[in-house]
Amino acid sequence: MSDIPERAPDRLTRAEAKFAEFLRMKAENLNVSFEVLCAKNPDDATALRVLYSIYDEGRSAAENPTLGSRLEKFFGATVVERTALESVASPPDDAAAPGGSPPREALPLGGHRRDDGARYDMKEELARGGMGIILRVWDRDLNRQIAMKVLPPGARGSPAGALPEHLPRFLEEAQVTAQLDHPGIVPVHELGVDANGRLYFTMQLVKGGELKGIFELARAGKDGWNVPRAVGVVVKACQAVAYAHAKGVIHRDLKPANVMVGRFGEVYVMDWGLAKIVGKKSLIDLRPKHDSHGSLTTVHSSQRDDSGSGDAALVTMDGTIIGTPAYMAPEQAAGQVEEVDHRSDVYSLGAILYSLLAGHPPYMPPGVRISARTILARVLDGPPAPLHRVNPPPPAELVAVCEKAMARAKSERYPGALEMSEDLQAYLDGHVVKAYEGGPVAQLRKWVARNRSTAVAAGAAVLAIIAGLLSVVAIETRANRELREENDKVLRLSDVKRLKDYVEEADALWPCVPEKSAAMESWLKRAAELAQRIDLHRDSLRALERQGTKSGAGEGAWTFPTPEIEWQHDALKDLVAGLESFSNADPSIGAIASVRERLDLARTIESRSLTEHAREWDEAVRSIADASACPAYGGLRIEPQLGLVPLGRDARSGLWEFAHVSTGSAPEREPTGVIHRSAEMGLVFVLLPGGNFKMGAEAPSAGRKVGDPHCDPSARAHEGPVHEVALDPFFASKYEMTQGQWLRATRRNPSKFRPETGFSLLHPVELVSLAEARIVLARLGLELPSEAQWEYLARGGTTSVWWTGDAAKSLDHAANLADGSLEREAPGAYPTLRWLDDGHARHAPVGSYLPNPFGIHDTVGNVWEWVSDAGRYADPASPGKGERPSSSGTMSYIRGGSWTNLAESGRSANRFAYKGENRDSDLGVRPVMRLKVNSR
C-alpha cells in the first residue's frame, strides 16, 4: 500500500458499491468468494481488502487505530468523515437481505434518520450472569460498537416473573460504575429502557481476553507474555480497585474472570454488580445459601453442584449468583457480611496473584475436579497449599506479597490495594518488597542490583576504607555485645507483657463460632512465635544463674551479686514457667492447645449443626411455623440455629427439642419418645413459645383462698405483687447442667458428689458460683435465665403453688427434696418430709423425675439454680428476657429448692436471696439460649 492512487475517495466510493454487492450476494447464499471479487476488480482489490478487514473484525476506522491509519493512508484523510463506510463495515445483517430493507441512508454527523426510532441494533449475546446479560450492540447515532447490559429474564422490566429486588441492584451497579472515573474501570455511557421495556445501560465494549488466559500465556512464555509482565497487569488491577476503595466502593467479586486485558495493554476491572458502597446498607446478602441437603446451592437452583469443576457459581441468601469461592476472603466465605471490607478485596487480589504463581486457583489443584461446596469448606478450613511447593518455585518476593494479601486475619493483610500494588511495582522495579524484607542492608543489595557499574566503582573505595575499619573492630565487638545484652533484656520484658496479654486475649476468644475463627488463627500465629522463644529465655536464665550461687536445696535458693540480677533471674524464671504452661499440650492447662481446640470447633460447628442436619432443620422450621401442627408457637418463624440439632417434638408437651453440639453428643429418643439420657449427651434445649405470663405469688386474704391463681400460703412479701411479664421465645435447658457437660466445657468437675464418691457424670454439676456460671455459659454462647424466664419454664403454663398442683403431696415422683432417703443416710441432719421417699439421699441424675407440662425436669428440688438478675418486683422488667436491674447490693437469687429442702422451697414463685460468691453442693445451673428469629 505504498503507492497511493490519485482520487482515492473516488476509488473508495467505487469499492464500497462493489463490497455492498458482495454482501448482498452472500446474504442470498450465492456461491461467491471474496477472492473472486478481488480478482474481478484488481484495481480496487486493495480497497476491497481494507473494507473486508473492517467487516470481518467488526470495527470501525475510528475505533481501530491500526485500520484507521491504513484507511487514511490509502483513501486520504477525508475517510474518517465518511459515514457510508461505517454502514458497510457493520455486520451483514445491516446490508440488504432477501426480503429486507436496504442499508441505512447515511446522514451528516448528528444522527441517522430511522423509521423505528431505535438507536441500537442488537447483535449477539456476549455473556450472561445472575445480575444481567451482556450484549454486543451497534450504536447507530455514533456509528460504533458498544456493550449493553440488560436485566436478566425474570427481573423487573423483563418478560416474566418479576423479581423487584433486581431493579435497585441493577440501577446501583450502573450508577456506581458510572461514577468510577478511572482508566481501569469501563465507562458507562447511558442508562435507559428499550422498546421491550427492559432496563439497560451501555458501556464501552472491551476487546481483549480474560486474565486467566493471560496467566496461561505468561507461564508458557507465549505471545510476548511472562510472569513479570503479568504481574504488571495485577498492578494495574490493584490500582483500579484502590481507586474504587478511595471512592468508598468495595468490589466483593474480584477474580480473573472479572479482569480483562486488551490488545494494547489496557487492564479493566469488570462486573461491579456485587459492589458495596461503604456506609450504605448493601442490597445484596452475600452469605452463601445451603439447600435442604446441606450443600451450597449452585447456579441451577434446582440442581446440586456435582460437576466437580469448581466453576459452579454459588447462590447467596437473597438469590444472587456469585462466582467460585476460591477467590473469596475467609470472612466472606463464612457469611460474615459485616466483616467484609476493602481488605476482603485485597485478599481476592492476593488470590488472583496466587493463581498466576501456582498455575491454578487457590484450593483447586490442577487436574482435579472439585465442587464449589468443597472449595468453600476448604476456604473456611485454612490457607491454600503453600506456594513454595510449586515446581519451579515462584520468586520469594512475590510469594511474600501473595501471603500477606491472603492473610487469614484482616489486620495482617495490606491495609489497602494501593499498598499491595506498590509492593508489586517495587518487585518489578528492583526495589525492596516490604512484605519480604526491609532495612538498610536490603536497600543496599537492591541498589547494587540496579546499579551494578556504579557499585563496582564504589567497591574500590570501600576496600580502601576497610583497613581503617579494622582498627575499631574490637571496640565495636564489645559495643555489640552490650547492645545484644540490652536487647535480650528488652525482649524478656516484652515477652513477660506479651504472655500476660495473650492469656487475657485467649480468655476472650469465645464462643466457638465461625466469626471467631480469624481472630483465633491470628492469635495462634502470634502465640506460636512467642512460644518458640522459650529456649532463648531458658538460655538467658542459665546465663544469669552462672553469675549466682545456689545457696540451698530449694529450686529458687539463689544468691546473686546485685539485686538487679536477682530481679532479672526471678522474672525470667517466671516467664519460662509461664511459657511452659502456655505451651502445654493439655487444653485444660495450655492456652495454645485450648485455642487450637476451640478453632477446630469453630471451623466445624456450622457443618455439625446445620449442614449435616439440613433436612431435620427444614422439618423443624416448617413444623414450628405451622400453627395447625404446632399451635403453641402461633406460627413462629425461625431460622436454623447455629450449634443446635433438632431432636423432634416431645410427645407430651408438643414442643420442639434440640441438642447442643458443643457440650456433648446428641441423644436419641427411646421407643416411648423419652430422651435416652447418658453421661455423654450434650445439653437438650426446649424451644419455649413467647408471650405474656403472670409471675409471683400472694398470700391468701379476704376473698382469696388457696386454689386461686398464684395464691400461696407460703408467699412472702418479696414474691408479690403478682404481675404480668412479656417474654420472647427462648430455648430452656430440659435438664439441669450435668457434671459431664461442665467437665467437657471446662476440663474440670468442681462438684462434691462426683463419680469418685459414687455418683455419675449424669448428676447435676454443683459447687458453682454465680460468676463461674456466667463465664462458662458465655463461652458456650449460653446464659443464665432471668427470674421471669426461670419461673415461666418452671411453671410450664400452670398457676398453682407447684406445677403439680397446690398440695405438697402432688410432688410425689416429680421432685427430689429432703425426704426419707436423706433421713436414713443422715439422721437428724435436715428437716425431712416423712411422707416422701424419692429414692435419692443427695441429688439425683438429671431427668429422674416427671417433667412439667413444658417437658422440663427437676424444677422442684434436686439442686438450686442461679438466675441472672436480682431486682425487686417493683422495678419494671425489660421486655424480651424480662430482666430487672439488680437492686439488692451483693445479693443474688436462686430458685427451685434442692435435695436439702422441704417442699416450700421448691414453690414456683419462691425466691431465695443468696450471695453470688457462694458455692454449695446443692447449687447448680440451668442454661438458656437466645432464639435468633428469621427477620426476612
Secondary-structure map:
Layout lengths: L7 H20 L6 H7 L4 H13 L7 H11 L7 H7 L30 E10 L2 E8 L4 E7 L15 H14 L8 E6 L5 E5 L4 E3 H10 L6 H20 L2 E2 L8 E4 L4 E3 L6 E2 L36 E2 L5 E2 L7 H4 L8 H17 L13 H10 L14 H10 L11 H13 L10 H11 L1 H19 L2 H35 L9 H15 L2 H12 L3 E2 L7 E2 L3 H20 L8 H19 L4 H12 L18 E6 L6 E5 L23 E5 L2 E5 L27 E5 L2 E4 L5 H8 L23 H10 L7 H9 L24 H6 L38 E3 L24 E5 L16 E4 L7 E2 L3 E3 L6
Parallel strand pairs: 21-24
Antiparallel strand pairs: 1-2, 2-3, 3-5, 4-5, 6-8, 7-10, 8-9, 11-12, 13-14, 15-16, 16-17, 17-20, 18-19, 20-25, 21-22, 22-23
Helix pairs in contact: 1-3, 2-3, 3-4, 7-8, 8-10, 8-13, 10-12, 12-13, 16-17, 16-19, 17-20, 18-19
Structural commentary:
Helix content is 35%, strand content 11%. The protein is of the alpha+beta class and 936 residues long. It folds into six domains: 8-94; 120-203, 2-Layer Sandwich (Phosphorylase Kinase, domain 1); 208-436, Orthogonal Bundle (Transferase(Phosphotransferase), domain 1), CATH 1.10.510; 445-471, no CATH class; 475-605; 610-930, paralog of FGE (formylglycine-generating enzyme) (Alpha-Beta Complex), CATH 3.90.1580. The strands form eight sheets. A five-stranded antiparallel beta sheet has the order 1-2-3-5-4, covered by helices on one side. A five-stranded antiparallel beta sheet has the order 15-16-17-20-25, covered by helices on one side. A four-stranded mixed beta sheet has the order 23-22-21-24, with helices on one face. Strand 13 (549-550) and strand 14 form a beta hairpin. Helix 7 (211-220) packs antiparallel against helix 8 and helix 18 packs antiparallel against helix 19 (563-582).
